[in-house]
Amino acid sequence: MPFWFIKRLFGALLIVFAMTIIVFVGVSVIGNPADILVPPDADQVERLRIVTALGLDQPLWKQYLSFIGNALHGDLGTSFVFGEPALKVILQRMPATFELAFSALILAILFGIPLGLYAGLRPHGLLSRSIMAGSILGFSLPTFWVGLMMIMLFAVQLGWLPSGGRGETVDVLGVRWSFLTADGLRHLILPALNLALFKISLVIRLTRAGVREVMPQEYIKFARAKGLTERRIISVHVLKNILIPIITVIGLEFGSLIAFAVVTETIFAWPGMGKLIIDSINSLDRPMIVAYLVIIVIFFTTINLIVDFLYTVLDPRVRLESGG
Amino acid sequence: MTAVLEQTAGVAASSRRGAILSVRDLKTYFATPAGEVKAVDGLSFDLRAGQVLGLVGESGSGKSVTGFSIVRLIEPPGRIVGGEISFKGQELTGASLEEMRRLRGRHIAMIFQDPMMTLNPVLRIDTQMIEAIQAHERVPIAEARARARDALGKVGIPSPEERLKAYPHQFSGGMRQRVAIATALLNQPDLIIADEPTTALDVTIQAQILAEVQKLTRDTNTAVIWISHDLSVVSGMADEVAVMYAGRIVEAGPVAEVINAPRHPYTAGLIGSLPSRNRRGERLRQIHGMTPNLLDLPEGCAFRTRCDHADEACRREPGLFARHGHVHRCFHPCREDA
Known about the structure:
heterodimer; A: mainly alpha; MetI-like fold; two-stranded antiparallel ribbon; globular; B: alpha/beta; four-stranded antiparallel β-sheet; 12 helices; 32% helix; Peptide/nickel transport system permease protein (chain A); cell membrane (chain A); transmembrane helix (chain A); MetI-like_sf (chain A)
């Protein structure tokens, strides 16, 4: 493993560690979970018993130390609400969110890159301008509103697609998946599209900008002078150059797809992590919130590492510089 | 036989015999908001197999546009608006895009000015060379690779087998230009258009590249159009030289004649401004004035406003005067003893 990678790995661990402190302090100031968890008619003794059982009577730094100690053993605390390990509850919901985020990512690539290529190659055409105008809409319309409009149109008015839930699922490797059944796929389309809309716009704009930057380069002219077909020039010479920024952004955006699936999951009643965190915040389920945020941070840093690594595969110049 | 001729029917017909490339009255204009820029305006010349033609002129004289017009790689708003380009009997101005593609790299190859920019930074050298072969022939990849390796060896790149796996940034500028030349030679083209291929290189590397191209094209009887602003480079390697000014050829002929006895005052000025031609301690001679604005050319002879010989006669368009295959476009040519 190259030295730079070990350095990056160490930095990533440091970020996760620093982040746990911020989350822990942040969560402890937003309210006392005892107020919500303890039944209103409980007496002082009962209340004290619950507070002690949850460890809320300890000073914050002690709570934090025991959290870190447990976390190093893979225990991120026990949910106040579910009474189960927070990690387990989150992991149960994770496949649903992953399924949604992956579908959105695939849609973003499938629509974004071809549309962006077209818009970049014919920048003045009517269709190109429509694509770009559409991408501005995709950027600026709020996700929740678009989601509601989609439900209104496709579920309520036209009745083509279901408005929420995962539909029929299939068990593969002990995990439930929607995309393997026709019914599940029908349930997946609207939320995935809703979540992908912003990313599609982003990929369109990135691709178009990349194409516009690469096309006038001398090496494209040289490729033409070699007698290459336009197809080869675009699919190899242009695409491989613009893939560098696109991979970066798609990679980084995958983290945010998972994190921001919150809105889409809530609207489409998609039983994933996003819906779980909203419920947990409402019930001030502290271990759940902390565990969720820690997992999200680990995601982001891992994705960053992978993107850095992919960079070196795609751009030979990065490889040499970092190898030295 | 002369390289450059006026478009008079009889002369043109006779000159086409034996020519692999014949350009007649080529006009390439650029439509800009400020008006139509006549980058190339009525250009004619012929090129025989194995012949090296030096195309010389200042920046903006239309020499590069001429090169790109021949392979039809003029980018909008540029457009070939008139003339004929006949390559081995095929008319190129009307050829389809696919016909042009098959020609490029296979029969007419190009070498560009800046070797730092001509190779794709994210593709390995072998990829970029093999695709140049496979674009024109159905060749197994191993065979194409072997050809690429041999071509690299031929242009003087040490351990070509390993270098094939390298990326462009791992090469120096001179080495990259060698790779570009090797790529151009891969399909043994009949014509190479070299657009200032040594301008961006160190002087010592320039000489090596020049010698290399000279040797390789002589061995394979490849014709070359060597575009340059540097008369001394061209004089060392070309058989014929054509001097361009404001989109037209103002003088052309065998290289020794043009260099030793220039007729057009502009050519004389270019030669006079070469440092090697000036005496030590003397001020360098220069052509006064600036390259003319192509949107606002003087009436008649375009060089008139910068010329010491100019008079009332020059307000008319000068025709092409020819003598022993040495042509010039001037009413008041320099005398041969000048």
